Amino acid sequence: MNRIPGVPAAEFETAEIMGALYGPGILGLKASFSREWVAQLREDIDVLYQEALKRPGGEA
Q1: Cα-to-chain-centroid distance, residue 38
Q2: pLDDT tens-digit profile of 3-57?
Q3: Rounded distance, CA 26 to CA 42, Å?
Q4: At residue 59, does pLDDT exceed 60?
Q5: Dihedral over Cα of 27, 29, 33, 36: its sign
Q6: In whole angstroms, how far apart are CA 19 and each of 5, 27, 54, 58?
Q7: Which one of 8, 27, 49, 60 counts the least CB within 10 Å of its CB?
Q8: pTM for the whole thing?
Q9: What is the rounded distance in angstroms from the CA atom of residue 29 to the CA atom of residue 47?
């Protein structure tokens, strides 16, 4: 079973997750990612967006 580091598996209901994925197709799960990981993702996306802006049609 894949686990999210730092988050106990007991906090997740497998049936609820599967129902959301096969139903509406989306699910919000609080504490799924650390604040540090999200901050790094934001920085990475900002860099990639700035690179895209330099190409014709890159922002579309």
Answers
A1: 8
A2: 556 656 657 788 988 999 999 998 888 777 888 999 999 999 999 999 999 999 8
A3: 21
A4: yes
A5: positive
A6: 23, 9, 42, 36
A7: 60
A8: 0.55
A9: 26
Q: Which amino acid, 16?
A: E
For the chain, what's the residue count? 60
| 36/54 Cα distance (integer angstroms) | 28
Which DSSP string do the residues of the chain spell out, in sequence order? ----TTS-GGG--HHHHHHHHHTTS----TTSS-HHHHHHHHHHHHHHHHHHHTSTTTT-
